[in-house]
Amino acid sequence: MAQKKSIVFFHPDLGIGGAERLVIDAAVGLQARGHKVTIFTSHCDPGHCFDEARDGTLDVRVRGNSLIPSTIFGRFAILCAILRQLHLVCIIALWNYELDHLRPTHFFVDQLSAAVPLLRFLYTNVGVLFYCHFPDQLLAQKGEGALAVLKKGYRVPFNAIEGWSTGSSNAIVVNSNFTGSVAKRVFPALSKRDLKVVYPCVNTSNATQLQRKPMWAGRKLVLSINRFEKKKDVALAVKAFARLDASVRKSAILVIAGGYDQRMPENVSTHQELQQLADSFKLSHETYKSLPDPSVVSNTTSVLFLLSVPDALKQSLLASADLLVYTPQNEHFGIVPLEAMLAQVPVLAANEGGPLETVIEGETGWLRDIRKPEEWTAVMSSVLASSNPAELRSIGENGRKRVQAEFSKEQMALRLDHSLDQITNPPKQPSAIPDWLLMTIVVVGITIGLALLSTWLLFVGLDLVKPVEEASPQYNAGETITEKIIAVTTQMVRNEL
């Protein structure tokens, strides 16, 4: 019998999204194999996370959320993310020694690799596995014109840190062959590394022959599930749906559901832009944060926006859906197509990136060019106006069988366990850091530290904020020191104006 492990996970923000779903599934799967699992995160809102993160299934601990905000005026997200992760590790490793008490045998780090070298320095006998969803520098928004040049310069040190810290991991696994090829291209130092593929999974334990349960009688459902982010290109679903013949569209509804966080400006702006797009096509629409009763939706509504749907509602939508449309360009993997196929829903996805490894053309769905909305409209029309329901049922059943065979939680946990076994006795030191990068980190760190310290001392001296030990209940409820400083600064500027 394999030796039991104490695996500590580090994830930046345990909200609702594909990366978060994978972390939860990985943790549950490894726990089911008899290992001790603990998850540390800088943020986890009980009202905006997966059930396993709040119902006691997993040991989730929120730390390092008292100093650095997630953004500063909606900017500097990567800088704040790195500082928050380093703060988290320092708190649990050097301040309260919480990490020592867990006696970790392995660290599982994903999405953000900045703390990997620190973990390897502090815990030389603990193997570090980094799960690469996709290089962060390729996910960052590029901007336009002069802003693009500024952002490119701003990203230089962070891209270097990402490449070095990722390479410092004892082992690296990726979520698809596509991601592996991109990672080796973006990070030359990884070109000769063995990047094993561990596909994300869906829970197949309760998968049975699905009975269709229409949420709206007499109306067919086209479903899109994605975070409200521009890069997900959900606008393509709206454009393709708007192109349908009026007679076909009248008897259908497009439901756009997914992760939405009011704290994230992009989520808010993307939702607004999608509403404006629907208006431009004269498509009536409604928005709900929850949908306790589907009957509240008007029969004339063409597009329904659902913000941060709970799992139970998502399952009801899948049980009612006639087609799942998955629109992201070059998505590194994409868990939603698997969830749809498990629910026997045919999938229409982009013919690039991760869906090429999950969706089989003509057997479990269709792959189409995202630059040609008319191709997506044609598939929608053929499904919504289909005269051969048996063919659609066959496609749905093929999808269910494929997911059960290739993408189960047990398979993912087994592959992760094997990868962890290979780093049980890791080398003692992380890869050497280049001198220029070390100097950059030191200079940036000292500058940020002095700026925060001087600002804090200034405001304490002016009696504009209280010291931490005298913090108000409002501060303890979640407002970071930096956020309070920003708020006070903003108010002072307004007063001057």
TrEMBL record:
It comes from the Eukaryota. The keyword Endoplasmic reticulum applies. InterPro entries: ALG2 (IPR027054), Glyco_trans_1 (IPR001296), Glyco_trans_4-like_N (IPR028098). It catalyses: an alpha-D-Man-(1->3)-beta-D-Man-(1->4)-beta-D-GlcNAc-(1->4)-alpha-D-GlcNAc-diphospho-di-trans,poly-cis-dolichol + GDP-alpha-D-mannose = an alpha-D-Man-(1->3)-[alpha-D-Man-(1->6)]-beta-D-Man-(1->4)-beta-D-GlcNAc-(1->4)-alpha-D-GlcNAc-diphospho-di-trans,poly-cis-dolichol + GDP + H(+); a beta-D-Man-(1->4)-beta-D-GlcNAc-(1->4)-alpha-D-GlcNAc-diphospho-di-trans,poly-cis-dolichol + GDP-alpha-D-mannose = an alpha-D-Man-(1->3)-beta-D-Man-(1->4)-beta-D-GlcNAc-(1->4)-alpha-D-GlcNAc-diphospho-di-trans,poly-cis-dolichol + GDP + H(+). CDD domains: GT4_ALG2-like. GO terms for cellular component: endoplasmic reticulum membrane. PANTHER family: ALPHA-1,3/1,6-MANNOSYLTRANSFERASE ALG2, ALPHA-1,3_1,6-MANNOSYLTRANSFERASE ALG2. Belongs to the glycosyltransferase group 1 family. This is Alpha-1,3/1,6-mannosyltransferase ALG2. It comes from Aureobasidium namibiae CBS 147.97.
